[in-house]
Amino acid sequence: MRTRVSAHLRQRAVEVSNPRDETFGSGTIIAPGLVLTAAHVVCRQGPDGQPVLVRALDGGPAVDARVIWHDEDLDSAILQTDRQQLGVDVRIVRWGELTCEHPAERPVCTAIGFPRAMRRRFLRRSREVMVSDPKVVNGYIYPTTAARSQRYALEVSDARPSERTLWQGMSGAGIFCEGLLVGLATQAPENWDASLLLATPISWLLAAEGFAKSVSAATGLPAQLQPADLQALLDDAPDPRLSASYLLSAQAQVVPMSGLEEQSELLAQWCHSGRRIDVAAVTGTGGVGKTRLASELLRHLGEPQTGIDSPRPWAGGFLSERPLRTAQYEALTTANRPLLLIVDYAETRLDQVDELLKIVSGSGGTAQPIRLLLLARDQGSWWQPFRRSRRGTASMGAGLGVEVNDCIDAAAPGSAYEAARHAFAERIRILKGAGIEDDWDSAAATPATPRRIAPPERHSSVLTLHMTALADLLAEINPAFAAYGHPVDVLLAHEERYWQRIARARGLDGTFQRQPGLLRTMVATQSLAGAGDRAQARAAIAAGLEAHHHGLPTGAGPDAHLVDAVEDMLAVLYPSGSGARWGSIGPDLLAGEVISEVEEASDHRFIASLLQHPSLAQEQRQQGLTVISRAADAQPELAASAAKAVAEAPDALLSLATHEVADQLGTNSALRWITEVKTAVEDRGRQASIDPALSKWAISMADHALNRLRTRAAAAAEPVAATAPPNWADVQDEAEQVLSLLQDARSHAIEHGLVSRKDSSGSFQHIADVIAQLSWIIGAHVDATVVEGTFGGRLDFLTDKPVVIGIANACHSIAGVPFDDGHTRALSEAVDRVVALARRVQASESRPSPSPPAGRVGRGGSYMSLDDFLRLQGDRYRSGPENPDE
């Protein structure tokens, strides 16, 4: 969550003391019963197995805690105590890092600790006592400060003690940025007038042996870094809970991903292509694993690494549909590490994608790579025009399109099923062990005669296989669920227990017991209408209540107190991670089933009554139609109900249905959707009571939409590049990427070079002379012939890292432009890509290619066999991939 940050920090702050060493310090509750602090506070002589004392900021008795992990080099330790005695209501912490250098968008960092300067004696009941008061410390962290030692330096912006020794006791305080824990205060250095606090970055802790494992074992949640200074642009990850919707969410990453190795490799290569900015699209029907593929890619790229010389891992996340501060797009241009930004349902968010690309590609900013990964259900009518307009520009290379299909092993679906079932069982065990509240009968761990929910012989997607496996497991844990039979019914029955627990906590259980089905109607309303703010949420509740009581007397309207209570319950039930007021039950298939059941129970009037309600905003109506259109393939009866609703109120809904909603669908789905709407409009027009003019207009609108869609489909008929194994053309294309980077550098040298020479600035000889003068390349002779051959496209030179980087460095030196780690990374990865592709091509061929690859990139030139090409790499290409499949 992004609200009440100060209260959230106050809940977490604790005082830590070790009576044996007479040391004291601060700490941060990272989960119920779990505290992160400084190692020198709790185990100065090493952990002795004896407890230390921990006291919450808001008072209460001190509780014993024991060290379960520590690292003296990082001066960090984890303490564990009874979760019921400390932090029982505290959410599991989110881990963050600072990734940008944008001065205008630098967020405030905050810590709460117990420094010696705040300790004081005073009389209480006629006796003198010592009190350690907390101190809130605000400041800024400039990532460049202390960058060589890879530490954070918090520059205090408010009141500070008169001397640095008075900071004693602040050690172990957590430093938060945008609600994420980014560092651990450990030291107040000399010479800075007590205005600087050094901190261990959380990224170092997550890379340390045993830390992430200890945290995951205690919380049930895999520890993963998020960019704290980009939180205003990104979705929040879901909090762990024992509900079907959470366990099935792609970002929970419960079941290990399998079957998408080829797509994963293509996307990894795209990320490391050497371009500064690039866009790719991943498409596939709902439930096949697009979001999980993107999440896994981000996790793999962002794995923390230790060591001062280690390359910085990638950062990123899912771009929020409602960013809190769109001005922070500018911060992306100052990233100090590569970024991967994922856009879900991208076909509905092209304006946002355009805005972001315009900012990041129009700036000379960072040399770090920025990748924008678009997820959509279908390439439809949006991808090809988008791709054609940008391909080959600063914002997009070739326009990679990756399709995700059913990745279940047809030869062994049973093994995939059992693997998923085992993964769900293990995550449930961990979550229960971590104290996550549940609604199950804990006595029914393994019934004597368990009734299995048999897996179907075929599944339409990975999601349906996972849903069946989870339903089977739930029926084993609690035999009462087995009576529901169908997997979806089992999952919804379990989910409804979660709803009921949240309703009880807000005193609404009596209301829902007196009005059967109302709780499910409210969840369906949340899924259909959504809410960007509290006003929209209240309007949706009012509309949902009226839809639930359709045809029944409701008096003077809904009670305001009831509306507020239900609205708050739904915000807690499914919180939004994207800045909106509400989220929604997931996955889409489960949400569609809830809506379908409510629609059937209302005699097929719920959807029409809700979408036509005058209190809904137009964007809420659009969301409702969009949700239904996405579910139409699996639940066609919903599309029929929505089409009838459109036909009944064409002035409010028809334009949304035939344009905004249809434009978000794939061609075939959109054709089915608009045809359904047109049929409903025509059927409605045959009724005698209908205005003929309105009916004629509605039919013409539907016809126009169909014709427009068919025309657009024909215009977008350009074939998409196949994701076939790489060939020689791919090797040549990637070599051109290396050459393009060098040509850009040389262009700057020619244009901006200031030295006076007989030959022109930036000439081949000039570049060779600069390399020789500065001795950048050791053990190799780089003369003007080598430089000329490199720019002439010779593969043996373009794949020699020292030569490529040395030439680029010389060009930057001539132009007076800094050459930083980002430029080195881009060139190095581009060279890696060429050699990796060449090795894969060689490995995939059973005999020598009859058409060897071109020895030069571009026009003309001699030819070189692949064997010669690889042989020329020799020992100087030690860092390239050794496995042809890597």
Which features characterize this protein?
Thrombin, subunit H; 886 residues; six-stranded antiparallel beta barrel; disordered N terminus; 5 domains; 21 strands; alpha+beta; 30 helices; single chain; P-loop_NTPase; Rossmann fold; Serine protease; Peptidase_S1_PA_chymotrypsin
Biggest sheet descriptor: 6 strands, antiparallel, barrel
- The class by helix and strand makeup works out as alpha+beta
Number of strands: 21
Strand content: 5-15%
- Neighbour order of strands in the largest sheet: 1-2-3-6-5-4
Low-confidence parts, pLDDT < 50 over ≥5 residues? 1-5, 441-457, 718-723, 846-886
Counted by DSSP, the helix tally is 30
On the 0 to 100 scale, the average pLDDT is 81
Q: What is the gyration radius calculated from CA atoms?
A: 31 Å
Helix content: 40-55%
Please indicate the count of domains: 5
- Measured distance between first and last alpha carbons: 39 Å
What is the overall silhouette? globular
GO molecular function, one term: peptidase activity
Protein name: Serine protease
Organism: Streptomyces inhibens
Pfam families: Trypsin_2
Describe this entry's structure for a reader.
The chain is an alpha+beta fold and 886 residues long. It has a 6-stranded antiparallel β-barrel. Strands 8-11-12-15-14-13 form a 6-stranded antiparallel barrel. The longest helix has 25 residues, at 728-752.
